[in-house]
TrEMBL record:
PROSITE patterns: HAMP, HIS_KIN
Pfam families for this protein: HAMP, HATPase_c, HisKA
PANTHER family: HISTIDINE KINASE (PTHR45436:SF8), SENSOR HISTIDINE KINASE YKOH (PTHR45436)
Record-given protein name: histidine kinase
EC number from the UniProt entry: 2.7.13.3
GO cellular component: plasma membrane
HAMP domain ranges (all copies): 148-201
Alphabetical keyword list: Kinase, Membrane, Phosphoprotein, Transferase, Transmembrane, Transmembrane helix, Two-component regulatory system
Predominant cellular place of this UniProt entry's protein: membrane
Source organism: Shewanella frigidimarina (strain NCIMB 400)
């Protein structure tokens, strides 16, 4: 399209130049015929330079000018017509463009040579053809090289994806330094693989923890059931109660997991209402104070700048109570536990053993228990439940060192 546009502009420009030149010569000889006599007019035509314009005039006797006869059917300027002439020079055939101008001495032929313009246009067409051919060839070559590079990366991605499909989840797509669209895709795909691998590890960890936590009570249940027939009638009730307690612990673990899933997936509807953070902290203090006193611990509370949040009062209380209960459970006798509320910020701190930095994020995973001996009874789902409830209420939770002990920080948006 660019070449065609340039060609069109060249032809139009050359035609305009010819038209302007012929119009100027027409005006000149019209004025000349008005100002000189017939003899001077003929002399001017004989003296005309053929390189500037070809002039021919037939007087009453013969032809005057550059031609021996006038071509037939020549139009009047500004209409033009192409016609050939033969010369004795090296270029025997010339193509001219011209027309007649009517003067008081009769019609005068005014023409200009245009075959040179045709040669120029032909050279332009040849140059444009080779330029287009070169550009097309270069484009095809570069396109082939570029497509081979893209195809090579796609083949590599396909090979690696087959490895991932075969179960090699540690495989990652290569990322080059060019940072192009393929690298963006590879980086995003690698992030998906990282998340997938973490989830698979979490599933394996949950499976191991379930097997570890439930194997002991289920074994106790089986042994206890086998021994029921051997128990005296007086001991049967106590043995049955112990078996029911073990069974309740197993069922409680599964119920907690189902409840956690419903909260995380948004399947459990929230009973939303304005909740006073000061009031919920006060209720929390009143319920947990007795438990702390039974462990010879001190529970204190500090309340400032009450705010209301839109949430489920029961679930929020459950989450906060779980945190305070953990602080009481894992802190030694004589420990001090603080509940601090300031606006939308709640802190629960203790001076117990605390949690090392490597475990501060891991404790929120399902069935993770930092007590390898399982000295304290539990499901390992408490902090997972806390985080799920707070996330549903658009609140954040973070763990920090209290030096000594643990500081739990909760912020409502």
């Amino acid at each position: 399209m660019l070449v065609l546009s340039l060609y069109r502009q060249l032809v139009i420009e050359q035609q305009n130049q010819v038209d302007k030149h012929l119009a100027a010569e027409m005006q000149r000889y019209q004025q000349l015929a008005l100002t000189v006599n017939r003899r001077s007019f003929a002399a001017q035509i004989r003296a005309a330079d053929p390189k500037t314009a070809l002039i021919a005039w037939r007087n009453s006797v013969d032809m005057v000018g550059a031609l021996t006869f006038l071509p037939e059917n020549m139009p009047q300027l500004p209409e033009t017509k192409d016609f050939p002439i033969f010369t004795g020079g090296p270029d025997k055939l010339h193509i001219l463009t011209g027309g007649l101008v009517i003067t008081r001495y009769g019609p005068v032929l005014i023409a200009t040579r245009t075959d040179q313009l045709a040669a120029l246009i032909e050279k332009f067409i040849n140059a444009a053809f080779w330029a287009v051919a070169f550009t097309l060839g270069l484009t095809l070559a570069l396109g082939y090289i570029f497509s081979k590079a893209i195809l090579r990366r796609l083949v590599e991605y396909n090979r690696l994806s087959e490895q991932i499909e075969a179960g090699h989840y540690e495989t990652r797509l290569p990322v080059s330094e060019s940072q192009d669209e393929f690298d963006m895709l590879a980086r995003q795909f690698n992030l998906v693989l990282d998340t997938l691998e973490q989830n698979l590890r979490a599933v394996r960890g949950v499976t191991d923890n379930i097997a570890h936590d439930l194997r002991t009570p289920l074994s106790h249940l089986r042994i206890g059931i086998e021994q029921l027939s051997q128990k005296p009638t007086a001991e049967l009730a106590d043995a049955t109660a112990e078996l029911l307690e073990e069974l309740d612990h197993c069922l409680g673990t599964f119920d907690a997991m189902l409840s956690l899933t419903r909260i995380e997936e948004g399947q459990q509807m929230l009973d939303l209402q304005p909740v006073s953070l000061q009031q919920i902290c006060q209720d929390l203090f009143e319920m947990a104070e007795v438990i702390a006193e039974s462990h010879d611990q001190v529970l204190s509370i500090s309340l400032e700048d009450d705010v209301h949040v839109n949430g489920d009062k029961y679930l929020l209380f459950q989450a906060l109570f779980n945190l305070v209960d953990n602080a009481i459970k894992y802190s030694p006798n004589g420990a001090t536990i603080n509940i601090i509320q300031h606006g939308k910020h709640i802190q629960i701190s203790d001076n117990g053993p605390g949690i090392i930095d490597e475990d501060k994020e891991r404790v929120f995973d399902r069935l993770v228990r930092l007590d390898p001996s399982r000295h304290y009874k539990g499901t390992g789902l408490g902090l997972s439940m806390v985080k799920a409830i707070l996330s549903r209420h658009k609140a954040t939770i973070s763990l920090h060192d209290n030096n000594p002990g643990l500081l739990v920080s909760i912020h409502f948006k």
